[in-house]
Design brief:
The protein is α/β, with parallel strands linked by helices. It has three domains: 56 residues, Aspartate Aminotransferase, domain 1 (Alpha-Beta Complex), CATH 3.90.1150; 249 residues, Aspartate Aminotransferase, domain 2 (3-Layer(aba) Sandwich), CATH 3.40.640; 30 residues, no CATH class. The chain is built from 15 helices and 14 strands. Strands 4-10-9-8-7-5-6 form a seven-stranded mixed sheet, with helices on both faces. A hairpin with a 2-residue loop joins strand 1 and strand 2. Helix 14 crosses helix 15. The radius of gyration is 21 Å and the shape is globular. The two termini are 24 Å apart. Bound molecules: pyridoxal-5'-phosphate (PLP). Pyridoxal-5'-phosphate (PLP) binds next to helix 4.
Length: 430
């Protein structure tokens, strides 16, 4: 597969954009080679600047659950643009959006719109601190909640990919207020709480993790977190930026039947435009300015075009919950096909799948937390990634990411993915 235009663009980009990319995981540092520059996308397919086509398994890192350029979303955007691209005043779509989110996400009684998942998580912990008057937060190793200072401590994805435990530029003072514990481990959590009693404002977690690869909570784990937080007066925040509107129309909280006190949303919520949101119990949300004393604002928050895209997306998912059972079925088919292919050639893989999320880890260990995720053979992963790319399947260029199957992936495409995965695995040099 020739990728000359991509290569030339990357050479140019590197001179004028740090690393040639506007978000680090887009660079192919973890897998070798040059990133692919895309020019268009439709349905299940991406087309690059050299006119190569790829079946897309990252869906813009989450948002494109229906596939690319979905007609009702395109139409909603085009229609909204004509009215205004930004008012800077309240507008009716913001009210519609809030109503829709509240009707879909069980824990949300009031909601504030922002422009990214990072902003949502940053604002949510500020609100939790303002509400409780406490400073410390608990996060989990390998979970990612955006790039705000407080979260760049034991964060997954990009951080794990580059083997940096931490980021420069985050002060020790900030780091001291972030306590980290392993995912799926109640004992370590209880120890940390015991040592910091009455100082912890909130616990923030990806209820199903996507940012160390796909990792699923053990049976009863989320309920245990709920019980502990209730007992200790700690605000439980589910970061549903990835899982919201993906694992079910009401996110992981609906799927597992656990009500957090707050949740953060992003990705799917904007239908491919930059949108985030945070919401939760009325009494917590009413701490936010202008009602309360926790400040948070945004020039483009609730942007009319972004709201139109989000409303079209969420409206569709709300009315068509059968999308989720279809996605689960087809993703399960892909995951079990891939697993079988690996077994047939005696390659150790550990496969995690839930709904439309899955990850293939090159390890025989069951992957339940960041430590077990890190047992994956990264050399095998990069060989697999590159073989898949050259056969026209676009995977996330890092082991520590979940893949996302979109509703545009048909049965035939699923079979093509399995077949190409089997070939790619056979080509791995041990
Ligand atoms: C992507 C992601 C974020 C950050 O969202 P951005 O829109 O990239 O700022 C936060 N939390 C989780 C769980 C995510 O997957």
């Amino acid at each position: 597969m020739q990728r000359i235009n991509s290569k030339n663009l990357f050479e140019k980009a590197k001179q004028i954009i740090p690393g040639g990319v506007n978000s680090p995981v887009r660079a192919f540092r973890a897998v070798g080679g040059n990133p692919v520059f895309m020019k268009s996308a439709k349905g299940a397919f991406l087309t690059d600047v050299d006119n190569n086509q790829y079946i897309d398994l990252i869906g813009s890192w989450g948002p494109m659950i229906l596939g690319h350029a979905y007609p009702i979303i395109e139409e909603a955007i085009l229609k909204a643009v004509v009215d205004s691209t930004s008012f800077g005043t309240p507008s009716s779509r913001e009210v519609e959006m809030a109503e829709l989110i509240i009707s879909m996400m069980p824990s949300v009684e009031k909601v504030r719109m922002v422009n990214s998942g990072t902003e949502a998580c940053m604002a949510a912990i500020r609100a939790a601190r303002g509400f409780t008057g406490r400073n410390k937060i608990i996060k989990f190793e390998g979970c990612y909640h955006g790039h705000a200072d407080s979260f760049l401590i034991a964060a997954g994805s990009g951080m794990a990919t580059f083997g940096e435990p931490d980021s420069l530029g985050v002060t020790q003072g900030v780091a001291n207020d972030t306590l980290t514990v392993p995912y799926n481990n109640i004992e370590k959590l209880l120890e940390i709480i015991e040592l910091n009693r009455n100082q912890i404002a909130c616990l923030i977690i990806e209820p199903v993790v996507g940012n160390m690869g796909c990792v699923i909570p053990k049976n009863g784990y989320l309920q245990q977190l709920r019980d502990i937080c209730t007992k200790e007066n700690i605000i439980l925040i589910f970061d549903e930026v990835m899982t919201g509107f993906r694992l079910s129309k009401g996110g992981a909280q609906s799927l597992f039947g656990i009500l957090p006190d707050m949740c953060t949303m992003g990705k799917i919520i904007g239908g491919g435009l930059p949108v985030g949101a945070y919401g939760g119990k009325k009494e917590i949300m009413d701490c936010i300015s202008p009602v309360g004393k926790v400040y948070q604002a945004g020039t483009l928050s609730g942007n009319p075009v972004a709201m139109a895209a989000g409303l079209a997306m969420l409206g569709f998912l709300n009315k068509n919950p059968q999308v989720y059972s279809q996605l689960d079925k087809i993703t399960n088919k892909i995951a079990s096909g891939i697993q079988k292919g690996a077994e047939n050639i005696g390659l150790d893989v550990s496969l995690n799948q839930i709904g439309s999320m899955y990850s293939v880890f090159f390890t025989k260990k069951e992957v339940v937390d960041f430590d077990t995720a890190k047992t994956s053979n990264l050399d095998y992963f990069s060989q697999y990634f590159n073989a898949m790319l050259d056969s026209g399947i676009y995977l996330a260029p890092s082991q520590y990411e979940s893949l996302f199957v979109s509703a545009s992936i048909t049965d035939n495409l699923a079979e093509e993915i399995i077949e190409k995965s089997n070939k790619a695995m056979k080509s791995i040099k041990i």
